[in-house]
Amino acid sequence: MLRLGSLLLLCLTLACAERPPPPAPRTWPRSQNSGLGTVTSVERVHITQGFQVLHGETQEEVTVHEGLLIRINGLSPVEFMPRAAMSPPSMVLGNSFAEMITWPSGLWPTVLLTEAPPPGTEAGLWMYDSWEDPTPRGAEFKRELTRALGPQGLGVNIQTPSADAPVTSYLSVEVLKEKVRGRRTLNGVPAPELCASLQVACGFKDTMHGRLDCGVCPQGQTCTADNTCCTPATCASLGRSCGTVVPDGCGYALDCGACPVR
């Protein structure tokens, strides 16, 4: 009996010794400055199909379902203007790269989708200037993170909403983008004013700032492929009494009916 007890004790000891240590809790670095911009809202979202995020230090891509939808003012549109063969800057929350839902504009906030830290966590949001190296490695990434979130850098802290805060669910990131980009108002500015500033008169317009719904043309006019209102010709004004492939002057075809059989 004593020998059996000793064997059991030995087995338990070995089992405990072979058990791997629990993983260290993930840390979310905070920003020591608030120079990046002004956060206007932070919302909890759930993406049913999940979305991928890149962890900068490890270069590991993971799929997550819980995210934050962050709106921030103050990012310079010039920083994100396209440059030949170069990637624009990336937004990063802690060490997790964010996805741009809408791009910076002077008209409305930039909208980001990020991985969600635990409820109540405060984490630093910062911009990684990836013009020269779009895929930073561990040590370089950590240097950039430390610089951006340091006292002289450009960062801002994001507070994750509490566990009992409302959560909006979306089937996919594409559905979320359509919901955000297709608004008739952005940051309280009516779509007609936004559309006019971009010289878009009608229809849907996909821009680097998001998708705008610029409405319909006045009665008697039609919206062209380049989002302008155009008064189409009629069969009578063109002197046509029949035919189905007659340009109307607005990029479409007129159907003037069948010609009589002779």
Automatic annotation (TrEMBL):
<feature type="signal peptide">
    <location>
        <begin position="1"/>
        <end position="17"/>
    </location>
</feature>
<keyword id="KW-0732">Signal</keyword>
<protein>
    <recommendedName>
        <fullName>Lipoprotein</fullName>
    </recommendedName>
</protein>
